[in-house]
Amino acid sequence: MIKTNNRVILIFSDMFKSLIKMENLVFFNFRSLKQHLIRSHSYQGKKKMPIEGNYSDIFGLLGEQDLIWIFQEIYKGNDGINIIEIGAGEGQVTCYLGEACLGTKKRVYTLLPYDSNSDDLQVWHQNIIRKALVPYVVPVLWEGFAGIQQMPDKIHVVFLGNEIVDIEMWKNIKNVIFDRLTPVSLIISIKNNENARTLCLDSKMFQHGDVLYWWRTNSGK
């Protein structure tokens, strides 16, 4: 509990819940904790939040304008929304999603196509730690499909990065997402990701640069 300008910011509960979910996959250092406290508090009560994190050192497939657009869409969303990210690479998009959640109850659940000993997983984790986004990003490993069940009961936004070519795996993921999507949901995808089209049914498609997106309702329209 920290007092700043007579305001009490209760952040430790959510932070340690996130750390517990990550189990032994992540360590949290004091430098990251300090950076998180400063950034979270600085965004409280602001109508417009600048992107203060520098993520140019993390490799990814999208350009800056597309990443800023994704950030803004998540930032404008209601507090408490759940974002599912499918596939993450080194964590470029993850960081923009996570930054849009700073100082809120929004959370990013990232489905990672790695086993727990993968070097790629460690690179992703270290990037999330370095950027002080651990409290807002929950990693979900889909080893043996068991990890899919760790996703939240309600899903408001889905971001599809890496396309899943394993048909059986995508079928399982898609079924869970369908069961948990809220009545109106936003699907965002990197261009040419065929998985996205199977989620959006007949919804009208929009485009922003190299990003496609759909506003999906229960009827698919």
Q: What do these coordinates show?
A:
The chain is α/β, with parallel strands linked by helices and 221 residues long. It has a single domain, classed as Rossmann fold. Helix content is 35%, strand content 22%. The chain has seven helices and nine strands, in the order ββαααβαβαββαβαββ. The protein has helices at residues 12-22, 30-42, 64-76, 92-99, 119-130, 167-180, 194-200; strands at 2-4, 7-9, 82-86, 107-112, 137-141, 155-160, 181-190, 205-208, 211-217. The strands form two sheets. A seven-stranded mixed sheet has the order 5-4-3-6-7-9-8, sandwiched between helices. β1 and β2 (7-9) form a beta hairpin. α3 (64-76) runs parallel beside α4. The longest helix is centred in the last third of the chain and has 14 residues, at 167-180. The protein is globular. The N and C termini lie far apart (45 Å). Residues 1-48 have low confidence and may be disordered.
What key phrases describe this protein's structure?
single chain; 221 residues; alpha/beta; Rossmann fold; seven-stranded mixed β-sheet; 22% strand; globular; disordered N terminus
Secondary-structure blueprint of this entry?
Layout (H helix, E strand, L loop, with lengths): L1 E3 L2 E3 L2 H11 L7 H13 L21 H13 L5 E5 L5 H8 L7 E6 L6 H12 L6 E5 L13 E6 L6 H14 E10 L3 H7 L4 E4 L2 E7 L4
Count of individual beta strands: 9
The CATH superfamily title: Vaccinia Virus protein VP39
Order of helices and strands: EEHHHEHEHEEHEHEE
> Spatial order of the strands in the main sheet?
5-4-3-6-7-9-8
End-to-end separation in angstroms reads 45 Å
CATH architecture: 3-Layer(aba) Sandwich
Strand content: 15-25%
CATH class: Alpha Beta
Gyration radius over CA? 17 Å
